[in-house]
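Researcher: Going back to the complex we discussed earlier. I've cleaned up the inputs and rechecked each line, so this should be the final set. Can you rerun the prediction on the complete assembly and write out the structure?
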Amino acid sequence: MRTEIQQIVEGLREVGYVADQPIATAVHLALALEKPLLVEGAAGVGKTEIAKALSKWLDAELIRLQCYEGLDLPTAVYEWNYQKQLLRIRLQENGVDHETLEATIFGPEFLLERPLLRAIRSDEPPVLLIDEIDRADEEFEAFLLELLSDFQISIPELGTLQAKNRPVIVLTSNGTRELSDALRRRCLYLWIDYPDPGKELAILNLRLPGIVATRAAEAVQLSQRLRGERLSKPPGVAETIDFAAALDTLDDGALVPETARAALGTLIKDAQDLAQLTGQRLEEILAPRDDLEGETPTK
Amino acid sequence: MITPSRVALLCRSLRAAGLPCALHESTTGLEALSFLDTDDPEEVRLGLRGTFCASHGELTIFDSCFWSWWTEMHENTEPSSLMPDVPEWPDADTIHSNLLSDTRAWDAETKLDETESGQENELSGTGYSPVDKLAQRSFATLAEEDLREIDAWIDRLMFTLSARRSRRLERGGIRGPIDIRHTLKNSTRYDGELLRLERRRRRMDPPDIVTLCDVSGSMERYSRFLLRFLLGCGRTREIQTFAFSTRLTHLTPWLANTDVDLALTELRARGWSSGTRIGDCLTTFVQQYGTRMLRKRTVVIILSDGLDQGEMEPLETAMRTIKKRTRRVIWLNPLLESSRYAPEARGMRTALPFIDTFQPGHSLQALEKLPRLLRL
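Model: Rerun complete. Updated structure for the full complex:
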């Protein structure tokens, strides 16, 4: 493994993120090639966390843009502070010549920076997180293309703004709809899967430092097995962490179906899934199996 | 050392495997290599994967192309241990797509009694006479005066489908949030006085509508309704219409010609009312028209009884693509009119997980509910 990639693994671990080789390699290339990183994967596998961890590790500001349908340029890029402009015009109605006035009211003092513009104009290279891009509509996706390929934004009143420092851009998508090929082509692609038991255990130990080893192993085991069930919303890593924490507060004996049932709300967030996991089924899932590898607590 | 020509070779094999791998990708890939340890196959694989792949489905294809490329490249120089542990991607696949495994398992379960139940269904499909069983007139027996009602219904359906408002705002309206930008612009005509407040409202967002209509033999008794439906849909706004039986026909150009009889004769000559190969037809549709017509704003309406003589695999793949790329998939099935009917035919079962609205399409009363359902 190249030392840079090793450094990323270690660096991210220091800030509380367990990156395996696929993730670290993708991050390494995104930084080296200065390309946006498009992260896809099921809910709760730590897509958004990558950006947060990166900003901590790089000691850079995290600028986050949450996407939704109808997200438009005044919310995402910039808006003039019209109220303030109006006041200024009124106050200076007599006395100042038009040119000076115009130069002032379209100056930086009256410009409301929204996340994307802030990322472009930032003095230190920030980490820009464009979260759940699949929720935005096609128009917005098309607008992003200029930013993603050339790191610039065009504003009619100010002209084209080139990024002072290229931001580290992370886009996440839950795959609720297909993204356009144009957008995909401008990014490096990373698919994050549910972690294997070893990685999930490592995450748990990192996030809940005081946790009893067997407790963590039990939580991981149940999560892993539930993902094998046909649930509509399989538990993510965040759910495992909540579950382990819940187990810690509930009981200190071995994991029995009753305890699991009590804390199941932290793992399963869907009524139908919950109904599917009857007491008997849960018992079957919790029953010890010897044909599964890697589920014994190692740490 | 991995030379540019080597990378070009990889690109070629990726293209052959169906990945859209253009000059842009190969230059990025080459650039990426300079930041990677090119002696470590795992690192090269993971790195190049990010540059050459653009979706989860492409990862497995890439991996297989990559390993044969890598082995070939090192065949003479390093004879042994060229294939490190290939990560178990199929495993990841199963976890990822619950739907896939669901439908596959479903298929497997039904495989045993597939022939019986399939045939039984087809028999019951052809055998019953709707007039005897139902109070409502089925489209199988349709009088002229009913056609007017159908037209009115189609208009309502089209209106409901078109009445969706986007969350994106546009200028206009009298109650919405103030559009200060346009208020200011307007104020210039009153010498800077803000006399009129401009507002913003949610923009209308009429979807593109694509109808795919089964015109095979088993659907023939509904064909008058179907034709009426297709014509009616296209009356108020432009929609894309396809007919399929054993192959796919793009009907829109035909329907532009308003002479119904002429169109009907033409269509019959083109194989209307023969067998059904839904999967193949939908696959053709996705391949030929998918990029243009399957978009987030598209609503797909499929009219079919789901009795399929073709393979299930292409049907599943095509339905998944359609579902994933469009806003809503509506399936109108005339067989649903019978209370005994359960979607057990293989084709229908395969398609069911990818359908948003599954409705009977046999009589006016049955169709009456649809516009209301769609208003959600």
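Model: Worth noting: Chain A is about 50% helix and 15% strand.
Researcher: Good, that matches what I expected from the previous run.
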